[in-house]
Amino acid sequence: MWRSAAAVRALRGGGAGGAGAPRAASGAAAARLRQRLENELEDIRGAGTWKSERVIASRQGPHLRLAGGGGGIINFCANNYLGLSSHPEVIRAAVEALEKFGAGLSSVRFICGTQSIHKDLEEKIARFHQREDAILYASCFDANAGIFEALLTPEDAVLSDELNHASIIDGIRLCKANKYRYKHMDMQDLEAKLQEAQKYRLRLVATDGAFSMDGDIAPLREICQLAQKYDALVFIDECHATGFLGPNGRGTDELLGVMDKVTIINSTLGKALGGAAGGYTTGPKPLIDLLRQRSRPYLFSNSLPPAVVGCASKALDLLMESNAIAQSMAAKTQRFRSKMTAAGFTISGKDHPICPVMLGDARLASVMAEDMLNRGIYVIGFSYPVVPKGKARIRVQISAVHSDEDIDCCVDAFTEVGRKHGALR
Ligand code: PLP
């Protein structure tokens, strides 16, 4: 029987707005919720902490085209440290994995979601970090959410740097261990807390290897010495280190010569290692075996899609073949840091591709970032509550695929904009 389009919409319950139109839930509770959410959103706008998302109309890379705008934007705010996000071999590996292994597993790992490529990648990650074994997660956020609860009990203690990433903080919240927060990179405070925690069965010191807001590197040598003294284990989150810190890009532990003293590493596949997505834990085999049995984000979430596995696997191959890409990024970082310092800016951190241009004032950071974009340089201003009050900054991230001209353009634009706003020393 033929029905009119209006009748079909009515049958589907589409109403006058058409089958695809959004429906507002009715009822007093839904109305109260809507009002509450709108108030909260207004508060965020009022506080000046609203995060808007710019839409990119091209691939991730050093040069972007923004939707609705022109091209020719030089991008300095991705974690694409090694420029592998759009590397032709990485893309080809993803396409091959997609064709051979399909779009996805429609399953968690332990039911029917493990393919040979997942096992191969885990083996490769363990080899890269020189650890016994590795386990994949959908993200490093998940790896951090899943480890502390699986590993620590009320008999244990965890000691965490106060500026650790949100996912470490959340992961620690989920566990029942006794929690200590030590002052950022403050070894005296860590020692005092380790002394307090002597009464527990196990002590785990947890720190970012490199801190993403400041580009500073955890004092891992000192942390490992204290861990040895107080019979503790060390966990590091290497999201901003894997692939490029250290002589062979193994990370902070290699850079600081403590590869045999750090017990557990969590890191991401979503930054230097191809930039697609995914995270992992690597460390002692019994720990990895236990995570496969107990870690909730692993047990109750889909396997990594084959294309994503293909990207990361190829990125690791490229890094294990040569560290030329990492060296090229280090040279560009050095170029940017020294030219900016000479121009009269203060750059926080040392030798890290995260180069925070310290400005202090939140409004200045936001206005300068906007002016930089008008000059074709994409950078982001950060202010309270993301960083402490009075420490607003523009974070610049260097990539191996920036050319020297890109770096110089960025420095020139900063100098011009900084002069305009009186931000130079
Ligand atoms: N840990 C740190 C230090 C990070 O910077 C991030 C990402 O921003 C994560 C964990 C989470 O990584 P992923 O994007 O893989 O979830």
Automatic annotation (TrEMBL):
Keyword Repressor: no
InterPro entries tied to this protein: 2am3keto_CoA_ligase, Aminotrans_II_pyridoxalP_BS, Aminotransferase_I/II_large, AON_synthase_class-II, PyrdxlP-dep_Trfase, PyrdxlP-dep_Trfase_major, PyrdxlP-dep_Trfase_small
Entry-linked PROSITE patterns: AA_TRANSFER_CLASS_2
GO process annotations (BP): L-threonine catabolic process
EC number: 2.3.1.29
Keyword Transit peptide among UniProt keywords: yes
Keywords: Acyltransferase, Ligase, Pyridoxal phosphate, Transferase, Transit peptide
GO molecular function: glycine C-acetyltransferase activity; ligase activity; pyridoxal phosphate binding
Gene Ontology terms: cellular component: cytosol; mitochondrial matrix
PANTHER family from the UniProt entry: 2-AMINO-3-KETOBUTYRATE COENZYME A LIGASE, MITOCHONDRIAL (PTHR13693:SF102), CLASS II AMINOTRANSFERASE/8-AMINO-7-OXONONANOATE SYNTHASE (PTHR13693)
HAMAP family from the UniProt entry: 2am3keto_CoA_ligase (MF_00985)
Family annotation (NCBIfam families): 2am3keto_CoA, PRK06939.1
Similarity remark: Belongs to the class-II pyridoxal-phosphate-dependent aminotransferase family.
Protein name: 2-amino-3-ketobutyrate coenzyme A ligase, mitochondrial
Annotated source species: Pipra filicauda (Wire-tailed manakin)
Gene that encodes it: GCAT
